[in-house]
Amino acid sequence: MNTEPARTTPGAAQLPPDPLAGDTVRVHIAFHGPFRVATGRAHEGTDQTVNRADLIPASSIKGLLRASAAQLLPGRHDLLGAVFGTAITPTPWHWGQVRFNDTPEVVPRARVSLDPDTGAARNNHLLLGEEVWATTAEFTISRQGHVPADQLADHRTVLACAAAGVHTLGGDRRRGLGWVTCTPHPAVDEALLARFEELRAADRRD
User: Fold this and answer.
1) pTM for the whole thing?
2) pLDDT digits (tens, 9 = 90+) for 155-174
3) Cα–Cα distance, 159 to 2 (Å, whole number)
4) H-type helices in 6-131, by residue range?
5) Strand 105-114 relative to strand 24-31, pairing
6) Chain-centre distance of CA 144, in angstroms?
């Protein structure tokens, strides 16, 4: 049996792999009620419809994460542009399709507008819309463009924290729709939060 210890180069430290150095960020969504990402088009007596082939478009997910990141990093427009892209420079990341772990159910929902004086329903103020019920879903953000090696961990940190900061999606969120919990991988642990705080403080040091 060979018991000879592994040889290493003298003076070379064996650093553990950086868990944030990967090329993907996976996000798990848990739904706490129905949601609606409306198409903006009416159809067959329904005022607000959903796209059954793409219930949560990737563009909606990207917009939610960017808005979340903008709230978390108000002074880092440079970093937001690098991660999510600008009008001139495209994002190096690709937002994949949201895939549901069960079969979502699309059901109708009616809403009326009430007269504040009488408490009765107003005439011609009945709104019929579709809403979606699901339990869980997942999507993946994958790197498709060049990110400098020394910035990759920063990008993934921003994406993970932005995803964790999303608690609602779709329309009518103030009416109880779209409440969710988003759990990213890499996980938002103490190490990742410490790195995020460094990124947030960078604008105050400049």
Assistant:
1) 0.79
2) 999 999 999 999 999 887 77
3) 45
4) 58-72, 77-84
5) unpaired
6) 18
